[in-house]
Specification:
Blueprint lengths: L1 E4 L10 E4 L9 E11 L1 H9 L14 E9 L11 E4 L13 E5 L3 E3 L6 H5 L2 H14 L7 E4 L5 H12 L3 E5 L5 H7 L3 E3 L6 H4 L3 E6 L5 H5 L3 E9 L9 H5 L4 E4 L6 H12 L7 E6 L3 H9 L6 E5 L10
Helix pairs in contact: 3-4, 3-9
């Protein structure tokens, strides 16, 4: 099969088209004919250093996939050949999303909602599960609470805004002014242009902060939280504020790393089916232009997600 590989670590130029063996599903696994693959920051961070993820053989990047079940392994009862599915298989192990086929445990996928095309489905799993797990499980976000989402127009941020609104929260977001109309359309109640206003001076009495940026955003976010509030840090454990500073105000802090999650994927699919969640796709490129996708992503100027099209949608399940 055709795939885009990273035979060495480095800049986007190291991404190379190659012929690699087509995988076969093991027990409890499915083989998926990939139609689209989402592009995430973890992809270009892994490509640059190889320092994240678990690799087996020549690295094939990509964790988000949407496609059609080609084969099922022994013991699989959730799906049958021809079913349309999307998911985030094996994370943080190698997922082989930038390829014509990939395998993964059946419960790392769910059925794709019929109204959702493969491109938008491929944009959902990693960023959507990150937001879902951080808000609904780690923070336990409830109706009526106030949540602050940093980088609200980004891949995780714009999905977090919608998930929080679906749970009945009051949503505050940080983003450039040019992205405010977009975020209001998603349901954001209050927006702060971080280029002109310090959020730490403009916001108070927040129950939950979702920090998708890191650096000094975590320590500064402690100032806006209520007593007993929750700060969830996404970028890295090093970005979690000093526990002593947080503990003095009974604020819960911690780093959360997304996990494959059948229940969470079903939750996302149900929100999509209800019209309450949609991934914003900034750019769609063919698989052969994966390097260009990485360059665009690393620019930090995209709104929502970048997706690689592996097959045309017209080449459908019955082929």
């Amino acid at each position: 099969m055709h795939a885009v590989t990273a035979p060495v670590w480095g800049g986007p130029e190291v991404l190379t088209g190659a012929r690699v063996p087509r995988p076969a599903p093991g027990p409890t696994e499915i083989l998926v004919r990939v139609y689209a693959a989402g592009v995430n920051p973890i992809d270009w961070k892994s490509r640059a250093t190889g320092g994240f993820g678990q690799w087996d053989g020549v690295p094939v990047l990509g964790y988000d996939v949407s496609g059609v079940v080609e084969e099922v392994g022994a013991g699989v009862t959730l799906f049958a050949p021809g079913d349309e599915v999307f998911g985030m298989p094996r994370f943080p192990a190698q997922a082989n999303g930038y390829a014509e086929y990939t395998t993964g445990p059946a419960r790392h996928f769910v059925r794709k909602p019929a109204a959702l095309d493969h491109v938008h489905a491929a944009a959902l799993p990693l960023a959507g599960l990150t937001a879902w797990q951080a808000l609904t499980e780690t923070a336990g976000l409830r109706a009526g609470q106030r949540v602050l989402v940093h980088a609200a127009a980004g891949g995780v941020g714009h999905l977090a805004v919608q998930i929080a609104k679906a749970r009945g929260a009051y949503v505050i977001g940080t983003a450039r002014a040019a992205k405010h109309d977009f975020l209001r359309a998603l349901g954001a109640d209050e927006l702060i242009d971080y280029t002109t206003t310090d959020f730490a001076d403009a916001v108070r009495d927040v129950d939950v902060v979702l920090d998708t940026i890191g650096g000094d955003y975590g320590p500064r976010s402690l100032r806006v939280l209520r007593e007993g509030g929750t700060l969830v840090t996404i970028p890295s454990p090093a970005d979690v504020p000093d526990p002593e500073r947080a503990g003095a105000r009974s604020v819960r802090t911690g780093f959360t790393l997304v996990e494959p999650d059948y229940a969470g994927l079903r939750g996302l699919a149900e929100l999509v089916a209800a019209g309450a969640l949609r991934a914003e796709v900034d750019t769609v490129l063919p698989l052969a232009e994966a390097a260009k996708a990485h360059e665009l992503g690393e620019s930090g100027r995209t709104r929502g997600k970048i997706v690689l099209r592996v097959r045309e949608e017209s080449a459908h399940a019955g082929e």
